[in-house]
Amino acid sequence: MKQLEKNSLLIIGGIALFTILFGIGGVPLLDPDEPVYAETAREMLQTGDFLSPRIFGSYWYDKPPMYYWLVAISQMLFGFSEFSARLPAALMACGTAIMVYVSTTKMFNEKAGFWSALVLTSCIQFFYMGKAAVTDTTLLFFMTGAILSFAHKKYWLMYACMALATVTKGPIGIVFPGAIIFLYLAITGQLREILRMHVIRGLLLYFLIASPWYYAMYTVHGMEFINTFLGFHNITRFTTPEHANRVTFWYYFPVVILGMFPWTGMLVQAIKASICESRIDDMRQLLLYHVWWIFVFLFFTVCQTKLVSYILPMFPPLAVIIGWNISRMLAKLRHNTTFYSWMFGSGLLFLLLGAGWIIGSQYLPETAFSLIMLGVLTVILGFGAVFSLWYYRDIEMSCWLHTLIGVVTMCVAFAFVMPVLADRFSVKTMSGVYLEQCEQATPIYVDKFLRPGFMYYAGKPGIEMLPKTGALSEALRNGQHKYILVRGLEYRRVQKTKQIPTNVTTVKEISDIYLLEQK
User: Which of 260-264, 401-405, 412-416, 501-505 has the lowest mean pLDDT?
Assistant: First the structure.
């Protein structure tokens, strides 16, 4: 049955809204990325300039404006807050889950669509990124829309989604969907389909939507915009590592293993079944999802700059493959059916992650109780999921327990763990200390990593200090009265060289962030 079910839509929408929206206003913006987007949107509102993104009062060309525009609208409606900064990304994540349900139902069946959406909604990487005030889930929404529009032969919608993705994060908005679609058509011998995709007129539509902002930026800022946006933020980041210690071929393997939790244990079995046990029609359709996730994984494995968020576009196709496999097993369930691969994979992951939460509590004593409880709940619910497969052969019960584990992980993390650990990852509290205890007219030097958050919460750009460049030592040498906001690792690096003058005192130290004063 390929008809949408109203009850399924309500369940998916309700779980997605709860999982993604829960706690987005209760945790400060995490340094350094989230404050960048919130502050840039705020400066758009303050200046009335919605063309040229700027931060610290200066133009910058890191990203196109789509997410800034969405956050600015949210800030106009709800004020300047963590909630308003994160709301657009959260709604895009919820929209992606609904889109996956609708598309997968029409392509395969309603059960496949239902479980694909729940798998996506309850996996760690998806709900974490859905709560983050960054561009990735907005890009994911439009990129997923482009590829799924192709799958359903909605070609005009495909070009529109590519264009909006390009206004969200640049050329990747057309390069990724275009490459995935072309590779799929080539592998399946359907290159003639390109002739029916209105390519010339479709590209005209694409440029009609995507190009006005780029043209206006070039008109206003000239080659500086082209060189910085295309040259550095696209080409250089692909060819040159931004974080040299992450340049390893295996970097994304643990990201996928943890990011797909609690569904990781089914992943290998689902991929194998989609190749070896699918019907011809299903196999041809599933091949698109395989090309999709493999292309994303290989591209960013080759890419020299590596970030956890980059491979988020892998998760919808992997969720569909798992959802299809759940539907297949439900349709072919027999009394003597065994699920050894699924039971072993999931059981092992539940034990490892449960143990990981408990061990991690030793290093984060302020959240010890919450992490121990999360570890215990992970093991108990995981045992229930495995037991329901082994003893009752109940696939749906096991899947609901998998979903519950994901939701419980999210609730504990964002209700009890993240709020307590917030000062380790956000400069919000320290900004409040600065505003209350420091002379506002005195210059303040700010670690580059902390500067966006300080600007957002304290309203001052400060004087930037680049880490590992001697900037802190140089600031201390000039001897003038000043404040310094710096991370502990940078402060200790200078302390080891015995270059801290005697007239430097600590105003406040919070979770290894130091507010210093030099008189």
Answer: 501-505
